[in-house]
Amino acid sequence: MNALDLKLQTKKENLITIYTTAGYPNLLDTPIILKQLQNNKVDIIEVGIPYSDPLADGPTIQATSEKALANGMKLNVLFEQLKSVKDEIHTPIVLMGYYNQLLKYGPEEFLKQCQEAGVSGLILPDMPFQIYLDQHKALFEKYDQKVVFLITPQTSAERVKEINDATSGFIYVVSNSATTGATEANYNEEFLTSLKDLGLTKPYQIGFGISTKTDVEKAWSYANGAIIGSAFLRAISDTSNIKESVDQFINTIK
Ligand SMILES: O=P(O)(O)OC[C@@H](O)[C@@H](O)c1c[nH]c2ccccc12
Fold this sequence. Notes:
Layout: H1 3-10, E1 15-21, H2 29-39, E2 44-48, H3 59-71, H4 75-85, E3 93-96, H5 99-105, H6 107-116, E4 121-123, H7 129-142, E5 146-148, E6 150-151, H8 157-166, E7 171-174, H9 189-194, E8 204-207, H10 213-222, E9 225-228, H11 230-235, H12 242-253
Parallel strand pairs: 1-2, 1-9, 2-3, 3-4, 4-5, 6-7, 7-8, 8-9
The chain binds indole-3-glycerol phosphate (IGP).
């Protein structure tokens, strides 16, 4: 069974998802980070594929992306690294990338590699929703890849409903900020409160700007889980002991 499916079926609240940029801080760190996040009982790991033009990303993620690219991270390297730890990692892994990365690699080959590397699903924030339905959905299913779409305070109620129906993983609720990486959570309370009335039937997690335990608990009060990216990356950016830094960060938010 798909690891993400299994997780979402067995744990319905207080989920923690950690985002990490592949190949950061050093090319070979990602497998170590995955194992350490798993040791710390993180529920879901979002692995970002570094990209030269990360539109939705704030300064922290952009800087990690640039460093990772300079380190030599690319899709084939990432797939090999993931394959090398596939038997040890049971924590669901969701790849986050941009639509063009899937297109350039070739959608079918990309999805096939994801499955072979033990990946459970994909977040491609700029993949057009209708194009997914018309052109890619069948291939996602063929290779057992769940799809995660984002909703923001600007998403219309009608589109939210369509996204809820099309989502096979969880729904990514953007807390408010325009890009990732804010140092303070800036929750749009009205929007987050309204989530309960939107009739969502799929699990949903809140991300963007979450960096403390208080933020996490607040996200949990509105949704099934919290997603943390930039704060985690800042915590592992300048360390001589990556495992210890992962442990320390998770301790601060749990
Ligand atoms: O960094 P933050 O503010 O903690 O937010 C998570 C976010 O970085 C991560 O989920 C992510 C990285 N790149 C993205 C692009 C779009 C949406 C989400 C993301």
